[in-house]
Amino acid sequence: MIVPIYLENNTAIKYNVTIDTLPKLTYNRKVAIVTNTTVSALHLETLKSKINADELFVVTVEDGEEFKNLATVESILNQLFEHKLDRKSLLIALGGGVIGDMTGFTASLYQRGIGFVQVPTTLLSQVDASVGGKTGVNNSYGKNLIGAFYQPEAVFIDTEFLKTLPKREFAAGIAEIVKMAVMFDKAYFDFLMEADFRKKAVLEKVIQRSVELKAEVVNLDEKESGIRAVLNYGHTFGHVVENETNYKTYLHGEAVAIGIMMVNALAVELKMMTQIEMNLVTKFLEKHDLPTKYEIKEVDAFYDKFFLDKKAANNKLKFILPQGIGGHMIRDDISKDVLKKVLKAF
Ligand SMILES: NC(=O)c1ccc[n+]([C@@H]2O[C@H](COP(=O)([O-])OP(=O)(O)OC[C@H]3O[C@@H](n4cnc5c(N)ncnc54)[C@H](O)[C@@H]3O)[C@@H](O)[C@H]2O)c1
Ligand SMILES: [Zn+2]
């Protein structure tokens, strides 16, 4: 199945997201695969066997979010220069969101921009990170603060890659999936509640719907001046949880699950979601072994950390709230008292 991405004016297809067995790929250009040590050991040979290119070589970087930085980008760039890539050359990202974000950003920089293709290998990157053209790296000031909006030429999603993914990583992807459903699509949420993710056809359908929803949002608002922010449901609270635990205790998706719980509690307090609806979301997260509880030691300190988020524009806190299941609202009028009350009760 193919999900076309149009972007902004809906007149011309920019690129396709193909959800299927990885096809044979022929390129009359130089191709560099960018991957990491973990993924290369598992899946590089499969990818290489599918590619027919003028010249093909591989750049392998260390595995981990801590290597998602400018130093790694520079080392990739150096290897591209060593191999004399030209303006027509292509990068292929083979890996999770870290590799995808970094490869896309490197592609945007090499000789002012060359093409790149995403072959995402984690559930999170298949349903979220590989689509939409946000690329970049972290620095000491925060996550993803350096980067570019730079769209891939194509995205190839093959669920076979997920067979080697650790269970926790798989669940982390599910948190981003339920995010899409709660924000945009009640019928999809109902489907997810019953879905058996172990079945290939079900998994492909789930990925397809997530990509479609993300595509719709990105088409309307590529640069996140409006509705794209809705994809940050659960993230405002989740980022604080990640920050408080030094990015060590929880995977990003796990922190998002906790964040979803917190913002749902806020929505219940604001009468935007019923307790019954909240319980359904909780049940889904629990079913997939995602964390739903978090001990807030210091409510004041937790609250102050909201302002570290780069999205806290002119010190106004913006919350992406669910409106029941399948609806959303962005609000910047939530009082400190209400927030602290919800945090205390959590
Ligand atoms: N660009 C976007 O729109 C966007 C959206 C969401 C997240 N992100 C970014 O994505 C990153 C998180 O992505 P992620 O969750 O994929 O993390 P990740 O890329 O770190 O991958 C998680 C782990 O799984 C390993 N792995 C990858 N594929 C595997 C496979 N098939 N089998 C076994 N192990 C495998 C990786 O080597 C890594 O150790 C973050 O840096 C985040 O900022 C970007
Ligand atoms: Zn996320």
Report on the architecture of this protein.
The chain has 346 residues and is an alpha/beta fold. The protein has a seven-stranded mixed sheet. It is 44% helix and 20% strand. The protein folds into two domains: 2-164, Rossmann fold (3-Layer(aba) Sandwich); 167-345, Dehydroquinate synthase-like, alpha domain, CATH 1.20.1090.10. It has helices at residues 37-50, 70-82, 97-109, 123-129, 167-184, 186-194, 200-220, 235-244, 252-269, 275-287, 299-305, 336-345; strands at 2-5, 15-19, 25-36, 51-61, 90-95, 115-120, 134-139, 142-149, 154-157, 319-322, 328-331. It is globular and about 60 Å long. The chain starts with a strand and ends with a helix. Helix 3 (97-109) links the parallel strand 5 and strand 6 (115-120). Bound molecules: nicotinamide-adenine-dinucleotide and zinc ion. Zinc ion binds next to helix 9. Keywords: Amino-acid biosynthesis, Aromatic amino acid biosynthesis, Cobalt, Cytoplasm, Lyase, Metal-binding, NAD, Nucleotide-binding, Zinc. NAD(+) binds at residues 63-68, 97-101, 121-122, 134, 143, 161-164. Belongs to the sugar phosphate cyclases superfamily. Dehydroquinate synthase family. Pfam families: DHQ_synthase, DHQS_C.
